[in-house]
Write a structure and sequence with these properties.
mainly alpha; two-stranded antiparallel sheet; 11 helices
């Protein structure tokens, strides 16, 4: 039987195959989200499907619209749905760009579960797998994208735009991930690079003049399909970057402490201390 598609003008007719039941949990929004996940897992909701309107959903679940909206926001934050405004808007099952992975990694980084050493170490491991597969699956289009990326990074460096140059360097690794043809590698690499970009912005960009020469050597190995040599070159470059990042992070507390010790004392502060001394005694 041919699958019927709801008319965009009739939001209550959306996703006719999805069946929801009234919720009774004290944390109703979590049960709503769980039911929608189940419908997706069992194939009754698919990418691009539009959920029924808020009115229809709140009636099916037996909850207020505020509770329903809380559930929809949690699914949006998880990257499972996208909320679109307007006459033809609504809640749609997302294409899944990996936002949830990126958000999760960033949250763990901010909480301190993932530290800079963990991040840079995992990056080296993941990149070795990606480089090896990119060498096997490389196409001329992918090679051309990498070559153009190197040219743009050189140009940004000549112009003194180090923020742009840093972004070009990160994009080089995104291109490599896409060359594997594996969406898991793309999603994980994108998430890892987003956290790394946050780290770089915090500690500040540096010259790292060795990166571009390493890129050119790497490209030679990639074009020759020499995966072992390409992996060695990439690992050497990333380990050197890792040492640079970690040394700058370790230097930050020492610099702050030195600045605190050498900073001139404010006269008002000593006067207040002296004034308070006799009273306290």
């Amino acid at each position: 039987m041919q699958e019927s598609h709801p008319s965009p003008s009739d939001p209550d007719a959306a996703s006719p195959h999805a069946k929801f039941r009234a919720v009774r949990s004290a944390r109703a929004f979590e049960e709503i989200a769980a039911q929608i996940r189940t419908e997706l897992a069992e194939g009754r909701l698919r990418v691009g499907s539009r959920l029924p309107s808020e009115r229809a959903l709140s009636e099916q679940f037996g909850v207020s619209r505020n509770t329903l909206r809380e559930a929809l926001r949690s699914l949006e934050n998880a990257g499972l749905i996208r909320l679109q405004k307007g006459a033809t808007g609504g809640a749609f099952i997302s294409e899944g760009g990996g936002e949830a992975v990126t958000t999760g990694l960033l949250d763990m980084y901010h909480l301190g579960v993932i530290g800079p050493a963990h991040l840079t170490e995992a990056r080296i491991w993941l990149e070795s797998i990606i480089v090896r597969e990119a060498c096997v699956r490389a196409t001329q289009q992918g090679i051309d994208e990498l070559e153009e990326n190197i040219r743009l990074a050189e140009e940004a460096g000549r112009q003194g735009d180090f923020a742009l140059r840093s972004e070009r360097h990160l994009e080089f690794h995104r291109i490599l991930a896409r060359m594997t043809g594996n969406p898991i590698m793309v999603i994980v690499m994108n998430g890892m690079l987003e956290v790394l970009a946050h780290l770089i912005r915090k500690i500040g960009d540096s010259e790292n003049a060795f990166v571009l020469p390493s890129r050119r050597r790497f490209m030679k190995h990639l074009v020759e399909c020499d995966a072992d040599a390409a992996v060695r070159e990439m690992e050497a470059c990333l380990k050197r970057l890792q040492r640079s990042y970690l040394s700058r992070i370790e230097a930050e507390p020492r610099e702050h402490e030195a600045a605190r010790k050498t900073a001139p004392r404010l006269p008002g502060r000593s006067r207040r201390k002296n004034a308070a001394g006799p009273a306290a005694g």
